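2024-03-11 09:14:02 DEBUG pipeline.ingest accepted 1 chain
2024-03-11 09:14:02 DEBUG pipeline.ingest length=438
2024-03-11 09:14:03 DEBUG pipeline.predict start
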Amino acid sequence: MIDAFRLARRAGWNVVDQGLSAFSNVALAVMVARTVTASGFGAFSIAFLLFSVAVAVARSGVGQPLQIRFSGAASDIRDAAIRRALGCAVLMGLAGAALIGAAGALLDGQLRAALIALAVVLPGLLLQDSCRMAMFACGRPAAAALIDGVWAVVQIGLIAGCIAIRYTGLGELILAWGISAALSALLGVVVLRVVPAPQEGLSWLRGEGKLTSYLLGEYVLGLGAAQFGTLLVGFLASTSAVGSLRAAQVLLGPLGVLGAAAFQFSIPEIARRPDAGSRSRLLFALGLSAIMGSVTVGYVVLLLLLPDSVGSELFGSSWAGAASVLLAMGIGSLASSLCCGPAGVLYGMGAAALTFRIYVVKGPLLIVVVTITTLQWGVIGAAWGLAAMEIAVLPVYWFVLRSALRRGAGVPLSGDPDPEASLTPSNSHVPSERNLLP
């Protein structure tokens, strides 16, 4: 019972942390939407999408390798890895800032201001998120909740202050958001008791190159394609169409909270137990997906019954577009939530090569489908196109998981004969039938 209680407590702190993280994003979106025009919110949405891409790339190179390879490592080895990983996150932030800043300089209007402001604050944003991922790898989700809570409070305070003194340019609001993230990142470094080592950032990437290549490749082909598809809607339709999709995503944000919490919980829990049995892993995946699916159905129904007056209060002129795509995006969220169980187990097993193959097919198809549906039916068609791809990939995930469990092992991630290689949870031994409780 004690072990089960500890497992449940860690899961609970994961939910709390993801809730705080999502709350800060929702608060940011609502405050910006109520302050700027619909086109301004579209420009903000594009900047936020670019931030989301940058975070996903950083997680592929930093956060997920930490969770998969070092969750079960000795504390001294793990701390050394965290120091190098956070240094890599800083380097990624600087590189991304240079690219986004250069793109912003070539544009004009509100999109120019949004991208230049994002470039200024991107290193702090990526460092903050990488600190959270390091805390999950250490089994300290409460610490991650602490720094996300600080970020939420400081962010709301700074943006509210900007609005109060009528300092409400889109660039200024994004700067306030990023400054609060940088302060949270500083607290994260203090809590972790490590000093990021940018000079070792490249060595981190070289050491985790095999795993990172699969994770990053999967993102570029899959999740990155979804983000690119949303940006494509803006090109094929309008920036206001992107704002409609973004507003609907914000409304569905609480589901993202639970999904992210389940994902961040399952990876280190599976990774710490390389000898867990196939039956135990399958039950873990089924239980996780059943919980996520049930919650998603109930929440989407509530959103569909939301009065227009409430939606307009939250999103102003962006609400009408959000309401038009809500059903399609809700169905897509349901399919995505049912993937959470098998995806988390596969990642925890170190089977990144298998999930990568899924996205080799999904990524290009998603771009084709979104292009066709947007040209034919506008933003509503784009939303249904995105949903269709999530539905199509659902049975594939479960098939891949069953195949991996029948083989009884994860996929070897690295042939490097270094001492850290033994820490990967994907060693090729056949697991025993052991449960997933600590």
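2024-03-11 09:14:41 DEBUG pipeline.report DSSP finds 15 helices and no strands in the chain.
2024-03-11 09:14:41 DEBUG pipeline.predict end
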